[in-house]
Amino acid sequence: MIRMATPETETTHGDYQKGTQPVHEQQATYSLFMSLAKWGSLQIAVGITFFVLWLQPGGSIVFGFVAALALAVIGYFALKSKPAKH
Question: Region Disordered: which residues (predicted)?
Answer without folding.
Answer: 1-23
